[in-house]
Specification:
Blueprint (H helix, E strand, L loop, with lengths): L8 H10 L1 H14 L8 H13 L4 H18 L7 H15 L19 E6 L6 H14 L4 E6 L4 H14 L3 E2 L7 H14 L4 E6 L6 H16 L8 E7 L4 H13 L4 E5 L9 H9 L3 E5 L7 E3 L2 H8 L3
Parallel strand pairs: 1-4, 1-5, 2-3, 2-4, 5-6, 6-7
Antiparallel strand pairs: 7-8
Helix pairs in contact: 2-3, 3-4, 4-11, 5-12, 6-7, 8-9, 9-10, 10-11
Length: 319
Amino acid sequence: MGLFDFFSRSKKESLDQGLEKTKQSFFSKIARAIVGKSKVDDEVLDNLEEILISSDVGVETTLKIIDRIQARVSRDKVLGTDELNHVLRDEIAALLEENNSNQNGQLEIITPTDGNPYVIMVVGVNGVGKTTTIGKLAYQFKKAGKKVVLGAADTFRAAAVDQLIIWSKRVDVPIVQQGMGADPASVAFDTLQSAKSQNADVVIIDTAGRLHNKLNLMNELSKIKRVMEKIVPDAPHEILLVLDGSTGQNAFEQAKQFSQATDINALAVTKLDGTARGGVVIGISYQMKIPVKYIGVGEKMEDLQLFDRKEFVDSLFSD
């Protein structure tokens, strides 16, 4: 069992509400595409391809889905348009499952056997909801009984440090910070030292994300990792990239660029409740081969949820 269940009834309702704009846009387009059609033919598939791409599922992922539906049409000979939603649901779910992008609805951390804290380094450009994501994660880890320490290593912007201090007070967890202009690696070093002295379970380190100079970003993140390894040998255990789902394919481009700058092993896609572009989660899951671990579907603390493939598809295709 994980630390706590992200998908209680209230969480499922929150997910349903958060995906409502995407669902309404998506299925209204499908309804228009099949009007007057009784079976899935080449015209319907062409229309569906356009719908998926315009819903920010991405070209590569869309073509894979269309190929799978075409294979099903060939196998079943006749596929009625009344079955299209069901078939589309099955193929999207299967695609996500095959790429191992599903979670089980539980927040789990692998506690290092040497007694060190579990270290999460968070990356992402300004405005994607990075600081808010850190605050919500800290809240939920603390709620699960874990001792959390935050590190304000995004020292490029004064606002980033100030925002994280506000979140630390709101969630009531300790923070290590040296203010704007400080050496990010020094902040990370001090944070891990402080966390070890407090016997913390989880450390969350905020970092800068200046993609306009990828080489500097790569060097900075590499330095932070090297310094942290002096305190906790395997740190960071998780490098979490936060993406703004409302930016659609721009989020995918950011994911590609960040994956070239550092070894990302988890993704968080935020702001899905305010957009009709929820399909970007499907595309990023398939194309990046990096698990989407968290999704943001609202402003409340509990609205940062673990990405559960089954629950996501169920909500997207629910009546």
